[in-house]
Amino acid sequence: MTTERSLVLVKPDGFARGLTGEVLRRIEAKGYRLVALQVLTPDLDRLHVHYEEHVGKPFFEPLCEFMSSGPVTAVVIEGERCIEGFRALAGATDPTAALPGTIRGDLGRDWGRKVQENIVHGSDSPESAAREIGIWFPEL
Ligand code: RTP
Ligand code: MG
């Protein structure tokens, strides 16, 4: 048994399209528990820390600008192997490559959109999850 926590974000595109409930439905249907949830418009300082692994990449600033462009829903989920499991639910980073059955594959738009608009973020390792949960939910 490896009960984990992961940090999930419903990004501004997912929030604006009214997909927050659909993302939460899939998380709960999989059997993961919701530990904490908040709607907020993140500032650039927080996003620069959140995405620090991408500092210097060409998409870093556009990504942070996009992520600060409107409300997001930040969620901490919990469950057996939920870090890897949520990333499987999310699908490939590029919605045009994500498989049907995944959040990005089923719901991602593939006409002229930018890859940064891929509905959700999920932590990619236990270390990332601990770091990111500290950024978004320091009280946990
Ligand atoms: P995430 O962190 O959002 O869960 O997604 P990920 O692990 O699948 O992707 P990652 O490589 O960590 O990239 C973070 C986010 O940056 C945007 N991105 N844009 N070439 C590009 O323009 C590009 N590559 C990545 C995406 O929003 C991606 O989710
Ligand atoms: Mg990532």
Task: Provide key terms for this protein.
140 residues; alpha+beta; Alpha-Beta Plaits; four-stranded antiparallel β-sheet; 7 helices; 4 strands; 40% helix; globular; binds ribavirin triphosphate; binds magnesium ion; Nucleoside_diP_kinase; Nucleoside diphosphate kinase
Helix and strand arrangement:
Blueprint: E1 3-10, H1 12-16, H2 20-30, E2 33-40, H3 44-50, H4 60-67, E3 72-80, H5 82-90, H6 103-107, E4 120-122, H7 126-136
The chain binds ribavirin triphosphate and magnesium ion.
Explain what this protein looks like in three dimensions:
The protein contains seven helices and four strands. The chain is α+β, with helices and mostly antiparallel strands and 140 residues long. The protein has one domain (3-136): Alpha-Beta Plaits (2-Layer Sandwich), CATH 3.30.70. It has a four-stranded antiparallel β-sheet. It starts with a strand and ends with a helix. The mean pLDDT is 96. The protein binds ribavirin triphosphate (RTP) and magnesium ion. Ribavirin triphosphate (RTP) is lined by residues 59, 63, 93, 115-116, 118, 121-122, 124. Its EC number is 2.7.4.6.
Kindly summarize this structure in a few lines:
This protein is an alpha+beta fold. It has helices spanning 12-16, 20-30, 44-50, 60-67, 82-90, 103-107, 126-136; strands spanning 3-10, 33-40, 72-80, 120-122. Its EC number is 2.7.4.6.
In total, the number of domains comes to 1
Briefly, what CATH class? Alpha Beta
Number of helices: 7
Helical content stands at 40-55%
Output mean pLDDT: 96
Overall structural class, as computed from helix and strand content, comes to alpha+beta
Sequence stretches where pLDDT stays below 50 over 5 or more residues: none
CATH fold topology:
Alpha-Beta Plaits
* Largest β-sheet summary: 4 strands, antiparallel
Order of helices and strands: EHHEHHEHHEH
Number of strands: 4
Pfam family, one: NDK
Subunit structure: Homotetramer.
Catalytic activity: a ribonucleoside 5'-diphosphate + ATP = a ribonucleoside 5'-triphosphate + ADP; a 2'-deoxyribonucleoside 5'-diphosphate + ATP = a 2'-deoxyribonucleoside 5'-triphosphate + ADP
Cofactor: Mg(2+)
